[in-house]
Amino acid sequence: MTEVSQQQWGEVPGLGSVDQWVLQSSQVRVEVLTLGAIIRSVCIKGKDGQLEDVVQGYDHLEGYVSDRRYFGALVGRVANRIAGGRFVVEETEYQLDINNGPNALHGGLRGFNKAIWVAKAVEGGVRFSHTSPDGDQGYPGELQVSVSYTLQGETLTAEYQARSTKTTPINLTNHSYFNLAGQGAADIYDHEVSISAQSYLPVDDTSIPTGEVRSVEGTPFDLRNPVLIGPRLKEVPGPGFDHNFCLASPGDPWAERHTARVCHPASGHVLEVSTSQPGVQFYTANFLDGSVAGKDGTVYRKHSSFCLETQNWPDAVNQASFPDSLLRPGEEYRHVTRFTFTTV
């Protein structure tokens, strides 16, 4: 049985009140916020039987209101980067705000992570809904979007759904930063990771995919068997992992697939991820720089956490060979991602 409860958590001036929902099973406790559909904490038991929060974030609402790192947030309308913030849909060119070098990132200056979502209790969890108006952040069509967070035993499921009045690109994900040693641990160098991907997307110097789909064979991106993150980071060009791993090919049927497994041997904590999405962005918190003070005053530094952002391939709206990112009127967008927390 999962217990579901809610309480008011604070007020955002000009936007309204923010609630915190708590999902509690015998193994896992999850806290989520109506602001940004944020996953605020995930507490799991380790070898010692003690609960440990493995998600980075803030103690207070003000942190999330001013946050620019997307801690725990649902990001959209389009997660990841769109080259030049430009795309063409049905012969109309759209220009988005530029908020990441020369590109548009994670839905714009006020993406879904800054909206207050409408909450409704469902079996074993909560459903958050949001209406993104036509033209919101430059995107076409009114988008009705929802995410359901449900907890069953040791598995947290996020199920995304959306419909649009006009053809629009869409790509929804959750941007939780995990450290399986505990959210206050210094780094993730002692974590082991494996990702079930035969190929990945090389990127240019602004982190836009070049268009090539490259085999992981013989590269530092071959994570098909478990590797220790610390030594492997030294082999990756640039500041760390911030790359899309290809879980499915364009045109493949909708299916849930095993995605990744991360283990912290010292605590025994294990995270396994599965998704229906065709890709996962593995990100090793390369741009956390010690300027953010999070829970318990913890200063979050480079490589202090990792993200497994299940999603479509980045910049897919501009790359015809990538999986289709367009949602058309009358169609339903639906994807599911599961996070399972166990102990070894």
Fold and architecture overview:
With about 350 residues, the protein is mostly beta strands. The chain contains two helices and 29 strands. The strands form eight sheets. Strands 11-12-13-14-29-23-22-17-20 form a nine-stranded antiparallel sheet. The chain is globular and about 60 Å long. The two termini are about 25 Å apart. The model has no long low-confidence stretch (mean pLDDT about 95).
The CA-CA distance between the termini, in Å, is: 23 Å
**Number of helices in the DSSP assignment:** 2
Overall structural class, as computed from helix and strand content, comes to: mainly beta
Strand sequence of the main sheet, in spatial order? 11-12-13-14-29-23-22-17-20
Q: What coarse outline follows from CA principal-axis ratios?
A: globular
Radius of gyration computed on alpha carbons: 19 Å
Main beta sheet: strand number and arrangement? Answer: 9 strands, antiparallel
Q: What's the short story on this structure?
A:
The protein has 344 residues and is mainly beta. The chain contains two helices and 29 strands.
Question: What key phrases describe this protein's structure?
Answer:
344 residues; mainly beta; 5-stranded antiparallel β-sheet; 2 helices; 3% helix; 42% strand
Strand and helix map with partners:
Elements: E1 3-12, E2 16-24, E3 28-33, E4 39-45, E5 51-53, H1 61-66, E6 74-75, E7 81-82, E8 86-89, E9 92-95, E10 104-105, E11 118-122, E12 125-132, E13 143-152, E14 155-164, E15 168-169, E16 173-174, E17 192-195, E18 199-200, E19 214-215, E20 227-228, H2 229-233, E21 242-246, E22 257-264, E23 269-275, E24 279-283, E25 292-293, E26 299-300, E27 307-311, E28 326-327, E29 333-343
